[in-house]
Specification:
Helices cover 13% and strands 27% of the residues. The chain has 391 residues and is of the alpha+beta class. It folds into 2 domains: 13-265, 3-Layer(aba) Sandwich (Collagenase (Catalytic Domain)), CATH 3.40.390.10; 281-375 and 382-387, Immunoglobulin-like (Sandwich), CATH 2.60.40.10. It has an 8-stranded mixed beta sheet. A 5-stranded mixed beta sheet has the order 10-16-15-12-13. The N and C termini lie far apart (74 Å).
Length: 391
């Protein structure tokens, strides 16, 4: 995996990682949520982010805050158990993760692969299809070039997640999601590198999870939020946003602020400019130049560089000094065509001319009406032949 760059400016309101609560003393960056502060006796689910000193790792957590408990204290303690220090908004503007392949000019690698480990799944209804639904939600944004790709199921434990049953966290080059018994009160985590592009996600097996879109906790809602962090977004100030820092129940549809954030991080490729308009041109396609004709013929012409022109067809004598017939006009679009019956002209050489009326463009061809004597009408070098280099 390649290194990453950190975007040092606020790209959109969705890119503000944490909205700092207004307080006098320094504290963990937990947003205020007045709607959730009502005395309804229910716990809150709050999300926050911390960094692991010396390990090049950031961690995002969902924490259960009991009713009446201090949010900042609960979050600070939860991060401390992971060895993390809280990140505050003045220190951090995005989640710190930017996938460089979307800016390297190579469209063949514009995706982030993700794997799913189904082991310990506490919900019999859950499989990799819900993870893929979150991919589709983030992928189907016309103004963004970012794409998640679901690869396959895996038996790997997400290597950056602290609760994996091996010693130490490490970058294994894979972006994995799985189920683990996370710490007390922690519903889910996303671990990501600071200088290495990798993001691993785990949800806790200590909670009840649902897929019916009614009951809490909704797997798709939480995964959609976690994948927002995995692609590089911070938290939104809008309560209706997927990336809002509180769990408010089922939320499977992106808010305009979510869309603005991913579009600012990974803007859609600029479409190539349209080709320059071709120079106006008209060509007679039938009959061919120099053709010998008899009976009724259809004259056709094609036009480029002029939208919906009116094409005028005329018949001239062999040196274009006298117009013999007006053959008519056509404005019905390609092919432009009229008819000529040679019974109306005598044997000899003629010029067919097709003109675009509004552009003063024309194209001419020479035809010969055949006769019993071969069509030369008295022998010698006909002016039409001479003009065409035929004698």
């Amino acid at each position: 995996m390649g290194g990453r760059i950190v975007i040092p400016v606020i790209l959109s309101s969705i890119l503000v990682l944490l909205v700092l609560a207004v307080m006098i003393t320094p504290a963990v960056a937990v947003p205020n949520d007045n709607a959730s502060d009502k005395s309804n006796g229910k716990p809150q689910i709050v999300s926050a982010m911390g960094t692991i000193p010396g390990k090049g790792l950031n961690v995002h957590i969902w924490v259960l805050v009991p009713h009446g408990a201090d949010k900042n204290e609960v979050v600070t303690q939860a991060l401390a158990k992971l060895g993390a220090k809280p990140l505050v908004s003045e220190k951090f503007k995005t989640s710190g993760l930017y996938w460089n392949q979307f800016g390297d000019g190579n469209p063949d690698n514009d995706f982030v692969p993700q794997y799913y480990n189904p082991a310990n799944n506490p919900s019999g209804d859950f499989d990799g299809t819900i993870l893929q639904k979150t991919h589709s939600t983030w992928n189907n944004i016309d103004s963004s070039s970012f794409t998640f790709t679901y690869v396959a199921e895996t038996s790997r434990c997400p290597s950056l997640v602290q609760e994996c049953p091996f010693v130490g966290q490490f970058f294994d080059g894979y972006n994995d999601f799985g189920w683990l018994p996370l710490g007390p009160g922690i519903l889910g985590v996303t671990w990501s590198g600071i200088s290495i592009d990798e993001a691993d996600i785990a949800l806790s097996t200590n909670f009840n999870w649902y897929t019916d879109g009614i009951n809490d906790f909704d797997i798709e809602t939480v995964l959609l939020h976690e994948n927002g962090h995995a692609l590089g977004l911070g938290h939104s100030e809008y309560t209706e946003a997927v990336m809002y820092a509180y769990y408010h129940g089922v939320q499977r549809v992106l808010h305009s602020d979510d869309i603005a954030g991913i579009s600012a991080l990974y803007p859609a490729s600029t479409p190539p400019p349209p080709p320059p308009p071709s120079d106006p041109e008209i060509l007679i396609n039938n009959p061919l130049d120099g053709a010998k004709v008899t009976g009724k013929i259809t004259i056709t012409a094609s036009v480029t560089g002029v939208p919906n022109p009116t094409v005028e067809f005329t018949l001239w004598n062999s040196d274009e000094s006298v117009k013999v017939l007006d053959l008519g006009t056509d404005d019905d679009g390609a092919p432009y065509e009229v008819s000529l019956h040679t019974k109306n002209i005598s044997e000899g050489y003629y010029i067919i001319k097709a003109e675009i009326v509004s552009q003063f463009l024309d194209h001419s061809i020479t035809i010969q009406k055949e006769g019993k004597g071969g069509g030369d009408s008295g022998g010698g070098c006909n002016p039409g032949k001479e003009r065409k280099g035929l004698c």
